[in-house]
UniProtKB/TrEMBL annotation:
It comes from Streptomyces tubercidicus. This is 1,3,6,8-tetrahydroxynaphthalene synthase. The active site is at C138. InterPro entries: Chalcone/stilbene_synt_C, Chalcone/stilbene_synt_N, Polyketide_synthase_type-III, Thiolase-like. Keywords: Acyltransferase, Transferase. GO terms for biological process: polyketide biosynthetic process.
Length: 353
């Protein structure tokens, strides 16, 4: 069975604390009629700090979509290779052993995809398949894992590299003053993550089943308005309540596998905000500690979009608490409203004789 190996994560050097964010909101929006609400919502995100690819004074300016696109390309090419190399090392593979690269990002656009540049630059084979995913938002981390699993099921000797590159700060829009937009300004961070799914061998999560679920008629709850100034993030106030309709989907995939979603050993889920995790605890009837990895990602990095599930999984590796055969759930949530879900068991390294 395919095994999801330890992810590699890198966050940029520029740090913005919650105190910095609150002060910026007070200064930039001192006349906003709902400033008190915005400040309270930002305080309740649980985000202690975030990392940015540029200093905050540059982030706050809007030089135009063309300039932002140039920054996205420059920064992705500068930051992705080291993360890819670390992920390959942790999976004990070389670039020429990778058969498919799944690249996910909802914060910038390139054509050809960065996958072509990676193949030409980092020693991947010329027949390496490419799968860029650009429009699943935060759910794309889960989707990438699932498509890698599917590929390794079809081609059992194959290996898949997943790359998530999210520079959310490049989507800041100074003219978007709705409560949802201002809350988003205090929630999202920048990061690059990568992981390998091995068709054979490897230590990590042995992938066993995956599924998708879309809540009907919720397309406009999380969306981009694509304008001449770039991507304008739109967040409906109903989004924090989406776990009520999604929790049954999580229970359903577990039941199909003859598991109980409330009685698993580990949970790696997208941390869109604290309400998401709190509601999952309630609807799945699990203790808050079950989502400690996702909460840590949210606290230390903010919402890093498709990178959240990979960072949360890396934290579970670092805790070194999982043992052979333990059962777990991985899930990413994003626009649609879409859930990408996977079940797996922990695969420990073989014991030396």
């Amino acid at each position: 069975m395919a095994v999801l190996c330890k992810p590699a994560i890198a966050v940029p050097e520029y740090i913005l604390t919650q105190e910095d964010t609150l002060e910026l909101a007070r200064r930039l929006h001192k006349d906003h009629s709902q400033l008190r609400l915005v400040l309270r919502l930002i305080e309740h995100t649980g985000v202690r700090k975030r990392h940015l690819i540029q200093p905050i004074d540059k982030v706050l300016k809007h030089p135009g979509l063309d300039a932002r696109s140039a920054v996205y390309e420059e920064e992705s090419k500068a930051r992705v290779p080291a993360v890819v190399s670390q992920a390959l090392d942790q999976a004990e593979l070389e670039p020429d052993q990778i058969d498919l690269i799944v690249y996910v990002s909802c914060t910038g656009f390139m054509m050809p995809s960065l996958t072509a540049w990676l193949i030409n630059t980092l020693g991947f084979r010329s027949d390496t398949r490419q799968m860029p995913i650009a429009q699943l938002g935060c759910a794309a981390g889960g989707a990438a894992i699932n498509r890698a699993h599917d590929f390794c099921t079809a081609y059992p000797d194959s290996n898949v590299l997943i790359v998530a590159c999210e520079f959310c700060s490049l989507c800041y829009q100074p003219t978007d003053l709705g409560v949802g937009s201002l809350l988003s300004n205090g929630l999202f961070g920048d990061a690059v993550a990568a992981a390998v799914v091995r068709g054979k061998g490897g230590t990590g999560v042995r992938l066993e089943r995956n599924s998708s679920y879309l809540i009907p008629h919720t397309e406009d709850w999380i969306s981009y308005a694509v304008r001449s100034t770039g991507f304008h993030f739109q967040l409906d106030k109903r989004v924090p309540g989406t776990m009520e309709p999604l929790a049954p989907a999580l229970r359903a995939i577990a039941k199909e596998h003859q598991w109980d979603a409330g009685e698993l050993d580990f949970y790696i889920v997208h941390a869109g905000g604290p309400r998401i995790l709190d509601d999952l605890c309630r609807f799945l009837e699990v203790p808050p500690e079950a989502f400690r990895f996702s909460r840590a990602t949210l606290t230390e990095y903010g919402n890093i979009a498709s990178g959240v599930v990979l960072d949360a999984l890396a934290r579970m590796f670092d805790e070194a608490s999982a043992v052979e055969g333990q059962r777990g759930l991985l899930a990413g949530f994003g626009p649609g409203i879409t859930a990408e879900m996977a079940l797996g068991t922990w695969a420990s390294p073989p014991v030396a004789a």
